[in-house]
Amino acid sequence: MKNKTKNKTSRFTKINGLLWILPAFVFVVGIIYYSIFYTFNLSTLNWNGLDPIPIKVGISNYTKALFSDWIFWKAIKNTIVYFLITFLIQNFLGFIFAAILHTKVKLATLHKVLIFIPTILAPATMAPVFRLLFSPQGMLQNIFNTLHLGITVDWLANPNSALFILMIVAIWEFTGMSFILYYAAMSQIDKEMLEAAHLDGAGNFRTLLSIVLPNCKGTTVSLAMLGIIGALKTFDIPYLITTGGPYHATEFLGTYIYTQGIKQAHLGYAAAISVMLLILAICGAILINRVNKGDAK
Amino acid sequence: MKKGRIIVGALVALMVMVGTVLASSSETSGTVVWWGWTPGSPMNEQYIAQFNKVYPNIKVIWKQIAIADYDAAIRPALASGQGVDAFQVSAGSGNGGIHVYAGQAIDLTNAVKKALGDNYKDKLGKAAITTMTVNGQLKALGVGSVYAGNLWINQDLFNKYNVKVPTNLNEWITACKVFKEHGIIGFVQGAGQGPFDMDTFHAIADNVSPGTFTKATRGEVKWTNDSIVKALELWKGLFSNGIMQSGALGLQQYPEANNLFMSQKAAMVMMGSWYTSNCLPDTMKAAIGSASSTKQPFTMVPIDFPDIAGTGKTGSMFGDLDYATAVSASSKNIMAATTFAVWLGTSQQGQQMIANSLNVIPSLKSATQDWSKIKLVNPKKQNDAIKNYTKKAMNSGDNPRFADINADMNQAMIDVLAGVAAGTITPKDGAAQLEAAQGSRK
């Protein structure tokens, strides 16, 4: 009799519990996973988004991207270069700023705000400013002209330099994010550990390298994961500043998906690239997680 | 008795309701949301004001989208079936290409027959019919055509600095050099915006060998033809001989190059007949204001593309229907939207207004510019130049601007022109890429 009541309660609790997760379940399955499966289905079609009958093409959109589309590979290469350089520089700067602001710096709050402000500014707002800044008729050119430096600011028009300009913009914008996460991580480090290092004769630089940096490893891993996913999703900065040009020098997967899907109305092909982007993002996250776990062992 | 009153009352109420519904979607009343990218304020509002003089009960709401964002905005709007009653479409590859959106537009053949009679084809420009007919149905009504192939110059700046108007490559280089010495950009082009590069390249190709570009777009001549390679070499030369301003590939034609010309920081620009409307004082004032300039309107005149190939074959112009008005098949105001589209594309009053706005060459043959009513910024220097220019554009013959180029070929051409200009690919390889893209169309 007691057992029966217990079973009933347990079943009731289970059903009751399931009800609690229902909204999240509906949201995740209904919106996110449905969209992923819909995109996957779309990737097997040749469709402009409006024709009533799409043409089924199987995996040919994937084979086209992988084996005969140099722009797709250019976008992948740009993403890798962009991730490596922006990740290294913005995290280095974020780490250094965080370390400095953990010392007794005057106007520390003001400095924190100044470092973090670019992160909260919308790229859409800043893009025209950067286009003007790096334009041959812009502010930077005026400064160079005034100083008679003989430098022409045509960097956005040059395929060899345009990507680096976008990296400068990204570093300017996202260093604040690295800074704030490192700053929070450093606040968690046991002060006794730092004092012990000093008592053992470690200088500031040694302490930073051997005590602070290893203790911020979790933050670095998180930033790496966010960096990979962010680089794969990059769209606003290149689209608004260079529109992926010149000659695809600043093409990213996001801008290429937009060009294919919206401008050229190849929705199936754009969906295939989106699916590959998703796979790359998952692979990147797994890779970093594994490296992190391997190091921990 | 009471029952009878109730029935009569209900019938009256029903009739009022039906009347209201019918009235909201009739030919003479309703609300029409009109999407498009051109010509922009204040002209669209002027068109609507004129339309409302004839149809005061149709409220037209103009929804302007930037040309580069038009496809991104209109496709989901049409797919959702809401919020679009009339929308602009273009011929060929550009934004709003009719072949993409034809499925969402109603057939306007009967409407245009009703307005112009069975011989409507004789009354409208050929391009207005041919480019907008899809599977035998007239899917949009052409408003007007635009032509390109020429340069626009700021005559006041040429006079001020005593610069000779260029007619060949050397004169063009010299003119740009003189302007640069005075802190003015000689020639400005937003080479980062592909369709305008195509105009310049088309002009060069026509200068090298008239008609070859058009034949190549139709697959009648290979893109690897010597004259196309030569044209690509000349195109590349513009970026190294001081004609193109530095950083041209990083610049957009709209708004940047346009703003530099309108703010009188540049003396020459590659624009087509749509730019003619800037010769009207009010339109120019608005354009100057949009360029964040406080300067006064200036004298701008069209000139032939300089003979940079040295062939003597200059003055070629190419064009096609700039935009047409389609009526959304899912609109709740189809009749009112059709009235608007038909009025704008076929009525004498609507087309006369289009003609006088100088933005496009009207589709209705009987509507020509009424020069007695058109006041230009500098009539003495502009009137004859603009009249001749318009006449020349209309007689340009079978030389379409974008109509024969589909979206993929369009992208290939934009890529090749940017690649050749940047020195990433050679003109010969560029021509081969164009031929490969043409081949994949078949």
Write structural notes for this entry:
Chain A is mostly helical and 297 residues long. Chain A folds into two domains: 2-42; 70-296, MetI-like fold (Orthogonal Bundle). In chain A, 76% of the residues lie in helices and 1% in strands. Chain A has 13 helices and two strands; from the N terminus they run H-E-E-H-H-H-H-H-H-H-H-H-H-H-H. In chain A, helix 1 crosses helix 13 (267-296) and helix 3 (70-101) packs parallel to helix 7 (162-187). The longest helix of chain A has 41 residues, at 2-42. Chain A is flat. The mean pLDDT of chain A is 91. Helices cover 48% and strands 14% of the residues of chain B. Chain B is built from 19 helices and twelve strands. Chain B has helices at residues 2-24, 43-54, 70-80, 98-101, 109-116, 120-123, 126-130, 155-160, 169-181, 194-208, 212-217, 226-238, 253-262, 281-290, 334-346, 348-357, 379-394, 407-422, 427-441, and strands spanning 30-36, 58-64, 86-89, 133-134, 137-138, 141-148, 150-154, 185-188, 266-269, 300-304, 318-327, 361-362. In chain B, helix 10 crosses helix 18 and helix 15 crosses helix 16 (348-357). The relative contact order of chain B is 0.18. Residues 16-23 of chain B have low confidence and may be disordered. At the A-B interface, helix 12 of A face helix 3 and helix 18 of B.
